[in-house]
Amino acid sequence: MPIVVDIDVMLARRKMSVGELADRVGITPANLAVLKNGRAKAVRFATLAALCEVLRCQPGDLLRWEAADAEADGAPRPGVAAPGPVGP
User: Fold this and answer.
1) What's the whole-model pTM score?
2) Is residue 38, in this structure, part of any structural domain at all?
3) Which of 2, 22, 58, 82 is most buried, taking the most CB atoms under 10 A from its CB?
4) Which structural domain range is residue 36 located in?
5) Closest Cα partner for 35 from 8, 61, 59?
C-alpha cells in the first residue's frame, strides 16, 4: 500500500511505548498495532487527532504517501509535473 505509517518514528522520538500511547489515545494496543504495522484499511479522524494530540505532531508526521511503481517505470503521476532540467 502506498500509505506508510510512521508511528514507530514518533514513539521513538517521544520515548513512549505502544501500550502507553494506546492508553492515552483510548484504543486497544491490538488496534494500535494494526495501524502501526500498516495493516489498517482506514483510520478515523478522531483517532488520528488523538494520536497527534498525544504525540504532539501533525498528521503528516504519522502518515506519508510513497509511490510504489509509478516512479519505478518513470511515468509521471497524474497531476504532478515531470521534473525538468535543473540549473541555468
Assistant:
1) 0.75
2) yes
3) 22
4) 3-60
5) 8
Question: Residue 20 burial by CB count (10 A; 0-12/13-18/19+): exposed, middle or buried?
Answer: middle
Instruction: Classify 67 in phi/psi space as left (phi over 0), alpha (psi -120 to 50) or beta.
Output: beta
Find, among 57, 79, 8, the residue nearest to 37 by Cα: 8
CB neighbours of residue 25 within 10 Å? 20
- Side-chain half-sphere of 56: how many Cα atoms within 13 Å? 4
27 secondary structure, DSSP code? S
Per-residue pLDDT tens over the stretch 20-44:
999 999 999 999 999 999 999 999 9
